[in-house]
Amino acid sequence: MKLARLALPAALATVLHTPVSAQDELDFLLQADEPPAQVSPPPPTERGGDAQPVPEPAQESAQEPAVYDTVIPVPEPASPEPPREVARKPERGRQLEEIIVTAQKRESTLQDTPISMEAFGAEKLELRGIGGLEDLGSNVPSMVIEPFPLSNTTLRISIRGIGVTDSQVTQDPAVGIYIDGVYLARSVGLALDLADIERMEVLRGPQGVLYGRNSTGGAINIITRRPDPSAFSMNHKLTIGERNLWVGKSAFNLPLNDELAVKLALLARRSDGFVENTGEGRDFGDRSALGGRFDVRWLPSDTLSVDYGYDFTDLEYVNYMFQAILRPETNHGLAEAFKPYAEANTVYSHRRLHSLASGAPMEASDAEVSGHTLTLTQQLGSAELKYIGAYRRLEDSQYPDLSGGKGDTGYRVDTNAYDSAAARMINNGVPTPLVIPTTFQDQWSHELQISGSAWDDRINYIAGLYYFTEEGGEDGGPVHHIQSATIDPQQSDPLLSLLPPFVRAQLQDNALPRLSAYWDYLFGIENKAYAAYGQFSLRPDWFDSRLNLTVGLRASRDERYAIKDFIQSQFVEVRLADASLFAVPVPGSVAGTSDDFVGVEASSTYDDFSPSANLQFDITDMATTYLSYATAYKSGGFNTRDPQVSGESGRASDGTDYGFGFVEGFKPEQVRSWELGLKSEWLQRALRLNGAAFYSDYTDMQTNFLIAGTISDTKSRNAGKARITGFELEGAFVPAVNLVLGFQYAYLDAEVLEVIDVDGNNVAHLYPFIAAPPHSGVLFADWTVADFDWGNLRAYASWNYVGDRTGFVITEERRGLTEIDGYGLLNARVMLNGLRMGNRGPLDLALWGKNLLDEEYELTAIDNLPQADRAVIWGEPRAIGFDLIYRYE
User: Residues 413-442, buried b or exposed e (16+ Cβ, 10 A)?
Assistant: First the structure.
């Protein structure tokens, strides 16, 4: 009897159970080298009998396989099986499902892919409540995802400690994000719900050959469902939950004929935040989104497929306000003049607060992201020629409020409208308007691949050419308010400090001068990237063809161009009561403000060769080990937050002459990594044990660090050298019918070895990896409690742990101010699946809970606000909700 692998949906992969004796089971387990024999299922019978009905096989999409792959029997007419072989049929519900991935740009099972990775099919995404990238962080050990301080939709993603500390249109992420093979160049707007995802794949470690666009940390593949010309289908999901959560998802697959099908997927969402704004404007964390996809698949011949996809997301959100934890005791530069007043107008707490107040009206932010993708696939005998062309556009307007949370208008850190003598002086006699800074980007990419196999599949290869170009920028104009506060009496006149507090307060509120700051800026980029790559695998006859050798190389060129306009002004305003009488500019030498940038241009070109090699050996048919060497490169660029034009600008506001500025930029960074891994399955695929240990060398690290005494001025340079070691373990076990227990664990030891400062000193102790938790992991249990004629009852629970993170240091007095304590989240889901509605398809009902223990945990922390040495954004509190899912197939 032969075994055939057919890609079937999990719900259609039912294999009937034939009882076995204990001796038969023991005999089977002792025959490790002999694959289990399978038998054909008997004809279907009525429910209630000993046998269960066997569903008709479903036709799969010609492009994408189902996530799960189940071994089913294919009988041979003249080969009857003896009764003893029948007894070796694995018990129903006692096997772990196989997962199909495309991590190496060709289909293979997760167990056969020699890479440390996590894969989330549609079912697993649903079980763990993953709707988009931001939900992946706590579900993938050694991966950290946190929001950028000024925009909750901008994500800072790190894998194995390698990521970015800032988000700028001129700086690339360290983890490559791909949707249907298309690279997303900007980390802005990534925190979006996605419609109709088939699976997500997270590849750990440098991916410099097949995913060569800036993937020093790793890569994330998002694969959406393709239309299927074989049959009409649709599915709908409605979610309701606490804090007015409402999510609706619908997808329709419409065959037009045997060769052509279209698919329409829609998503709508709204939810309230968990922090009320008792001041003016919108509540913090409120969010609404509308998204959709339109896909076309045309199969004009047996060898050609044409796929077109268009997606869009329109998101409106309100940023959370940072909550102050520690009062300001470190030096804050010019802010020292009003620090006590800022402190007096700030709410402090070590616990998560349910309300804060904005002074100026809190405004909504919005993001619009859209894209077109065309994929042509032509079979040429044993080879496949593929073209992927794409155009994507994003526009993200980000309104932040970094004030103290008491709602006082006398201390503001925001970009809302402002009326004063200084504002009118700098804005042609009228108040400065509300400005919501906007990041915009257009990108085009073209990739041509040829892949295939030869010599009875002993040789596999893929080669390609890649071209990418983008234009974009950040618009923070016209001139607008950025910060204002009353100067503290003790700073303005030592005599006032001798007055009674009530008198001093009256003077402070009605007669003391104010300090205000204004920005007007526009940044622009034009970037191009070229690459040629190839990967070649050979499985020779040696060792019974159990050895597989793979080598790869990518040659890259990046052309970078940036232009910066930036004017910053500060004033002392003299006022009486609410009337602003006149204003005096503060000289830049006193304020420590940046150089004036008027059309300052910078450009550079970088080249790189990234090789890789992999040696894979199949120990048994169910266990494989591998040793890999991988390199990756992330392009250099320019720092728009650098307050100095060039190295000729002299000393910065902290008194240091760094010798470089915006136009010098920073160079590329490189990572080299060695990885030893094992993937194995045992006990008739009832037990899975995978592991990987790695060692990485990190050179020319791109490091952003804050200039002391400023809120947002930074310097970027290639800081030095580091090494990262660690390992990842994964296990899953089926101890009983319909019960799966599993774990995932990652250990990281990340150390910066060398950072040479401008004086030639090694200050590596001040530059730790900010997002490299030593320990992280997931525990889960998946139990089908009972099967009924009308469906089944299923329960799923997981505990997700993310360990301590170091955060920024920069100076010894700030050590520990931005560190994040580890936390664990308990999530659960109880489901009634497969409820029949006549012949119209199954209905699923689910009750779910996230953070069931209501853990108070911090997502990110900063130490550079005038009013706080530590301020944080908290993670989501406990949430309970309900899903209703209907599928028609």
Answer: bbbbebebbbbbbbbeeeebebbbbbbbbe
